[in-house]
Amino acid sequence: MTDSLSTTLAALADPTRRAILARLSRGNASVSELAEPFAMSMPAVSKHLKVLEHAGLITRGRSAQWRPCQLHAGPLKEVAHWVDEFRRFWEESFDRLDDYLQVLKTEERKKEKKHVRKK
Amino acid sequence: MTDSLSTTLAALADPTRRAILARLSRGNASVSELAEPFAMSMPAVSKHLKVLEHAGLITRGRSAQWRPCQLHAGPLKEVAHWVDEFRRFWEESFDRLDDYLQVLKTEERKKEKKHVRKK
User: Fold this and answer.
1) How far, in Å, are A86, A87, B28, B94 from residue B25 at the CA level?
2) Does the model's pTM come out above 0.90?
3) A46 falls in which pLDDT band (50, 70, 90)?
4) Could you say which residues from 76 to 95 on chain A have a Cβ atom under 8 Å away from some Cβ of chain B?
5) Cα dist. B76→A10, A22, A100 in Å?
């Protein structure tokens, strides 16, 4: 049995499925509305929607005949939570770069002062 | 060709690979050190490491004979950036729940006041 986070990440590992979620973040849409911008066949889109539905990333209307798709962001929260644990690693490396730039600036200023004094 | 974000997400869609990254967030480790907690064979761990290395999530020492693995968090920043675009969706649903709880509390307080007045 696959854990839910792995199922979510596998569902997200496709640019078309991520684009479908981005589209749904702007409002509910039917399968044909979703198929349009991708120039994809309806069965191809349906296949992607099944993967997203299985991962709990979308829900589909049962009553209306056009069965609108709706974004369900719950599993994305789990992804954000997992990846946030590593945030300090990319922020630290950015801080180190920032520290280095400060050192360069200070050295540059010292050189300028020396130059001015010589004049 | 697979885009880099899809490659990263596919690499993360496995609990063992995520556990390896969590282990490396506490410090560099050799393949045998990584294999230990998982009760996995060295070839099985090596296979996972290759997937992580291909996704740019780890780098491996070239000089030392034990070739220590090191976490490389850059691709995780890209994941965080993508998922952050959806943050308002789960925060909104939490806000709605919070609003509802506030309504319930207010109603409860009204009932209590009525009850006190009757006494």
Assistant:
1) 7, 11, 8, 30
2) no
3) very high
4) 76-77, 79-80, 82-87, 89-90, 93
5) 15, 19, 23
